[in-house]
Design goal:
By secondary structure, the chain is mainly α. The chain is 88% helix and 0% strand. It contains 3 helices and no strands.
């Protein structure tokens, strides 16, 4: 190696100081990143626990409200049956009116009923 390619003590000290500064910055950056990831992992773990509790709560609510839902479905079915019976009763009432009118007409006008002489 040529004699002039060697670093002087001042240059070596400057290089060492810069290297130490970069290493300190890197260590600080690594510590900051580790802290961020630890915080993220803590949040993810907390979120997983809350999601599990939420799922358990939903399952419990589903079990607790099963009777209420069955009651509601029974009410809706009963309402449909009552509406159907109401339609039948309305139809019968209309038929009774038509039969009454027909009976009145045939009673007053025998030739309409086909039974007159």
């Amino acid at each position: 190696m040529p004699e002039n390619s060697r670093w002087s003590d001042a240059e070596l000290q400057k290089f060492r100081d810069e290297f130490e500064q970069h290493r300190t910055e890197f260590d600080q950056h690594r510590a900051d990143e580790q802290e961020k990831w630890d915080e993220i992992l803590t949040v993810v773990k907390d979120n997983a626990e809350l999601s599990k509790k939420n799922a358990e709560g939903i399952e419990e609510m589903r079990k607790e409200t099963r009777g209420l839902i069955d009651g509601w479905n029974t009410y809706v079915s009963g309402k449909k049956i009552a509406m159907s019976l109401g339609k039948i009763a309305k139809w019968l009432a209309q038929m009774a009116i038509f039969v009454s009118i027909y009976a009145w007409l045939t009673g007053h006008f025998p030739k309409l009923g086909g039974g007159g002489n």
